[in-house]
Amino acid sequence: MGNTQPGVRIMSKRHPRFELYPQHEDYYRMFPAYRPFVFWVNEPSYRSMSVNSDELGLLHNSLPGVRLLDMRRLKESHRVCDIIVGGSTVFGVDASGDTSTISAFLSSHDVPCINLGNRGAVSIQELQLFLFYRPLFPTIRNIILLSGVNDCSLASLEGSVIFDEFGGLFGQDHYMTYPYMSNLSACYDDRSYDRLRLYNSIERRYRENGFFRSLVRSVLAMSYKREPMRNQANDKRAGFDRKLERQTAILANQLFIWKSLADAHGARMQYVLQPCIGWTAKELSHDERTCYEMDLEVYPEMGLYANPDFHSTFAAFISETCSRLGAGFHDANEAFDGHRGDSTFFTDVCHLTDQANRVVAEYVKSKTS
Question: Which residue has the higher pLDDT, 172 or 28?
Answer without folding.
Answer: 28
